[in-house]
Amino acid sequence: MKNNKKMSFNISKIINTNVGKNSLLANELARYFLVSLIGLLIDLSLFSVAMRLGGASWFFAAILGFSAGVASVWWLSILFVFKNRSLGQSPAIEFVSFLFIGILGLGVTESVLLVGIEVLKIQPELSKISAAGGTFVFNFALRKLLLFRNGT
Questions:
Q1: Of 21, 24, 95, 104, whose Cβ has the fewest other Cβ atoms within 10 Å?
Q2: Which residues have C-beta within 8 Å of that of residue 97, sequence separation ≥ 6?
Q3: Between the CA atoms of 92, 93, 94 and 95, what dihedral angle is there, to the nearest 10 degrees?
C-alpha cells in the first residue's frame, strides 16, 4: 500500500507539472487565436476591398491583405501573446523572421486559394476563410517553436 501512495503521488506531481506547461501553451494559443482573428479581419477586409473595389486580382489582393495582417499580428503577438521572445533583443531580426514564417504561410494560403477559386470555383472570400485555418496552425507552430520558445 505504501508503494501505491508513493507512486500515485509521483504521478500526480508529473500530471500537475505537465498541466502547468499545457495551460501556458493553451493560454498562448487562445491569445494567438484572438490576435490572429484581428489579423484575419484586417487581411480579409483589404483582400475583399482590393478585389471588389480596386479591381486587383485575387493573387495580389491576398498579398496586400497578408502584408497588413502579418504586421498587426506581429505587433499584437509581442504585446499580448508571448512572454518569451527568442530574438527580443533584435526586434528587426525578429520581425523579419516572423514575416518569413508568414510568407511560408502565405504560400499555404495561396495554394488553398488556387484550388478553391480556380479549381473548385468557390467564392474568393469563402476560400480565404477556409485557408485561414491551416495557415493559422502552420504559423503558430513555427512561430512558437522558432521565435517564442519557453525557457530561452
A1: 21
A2: 87, 146, 147
A3: 50
Instruction: Sketch the domain layout of the chain as residue ranges.
Output: 33-146
d(CA 93, CA 98) in angstroms, rounded, equals 8
Three cell numbers at 125? 472570400
Q: Which residue has the cell 491551416?
A: 134
The pTM is what? 0.69
Per-residue confidence of the chain (152 residues) as pLDDT tens digits?
A: 455 444 444 433 433 444 455 687 888 889 999 999 999 899 999 999 999 999 999 889 988 998 899 899 999 999 999 888 888 788 889 889 999 998 898 898 889 999 999 999 999 989 988 888 888 889 999 999 999 887 54
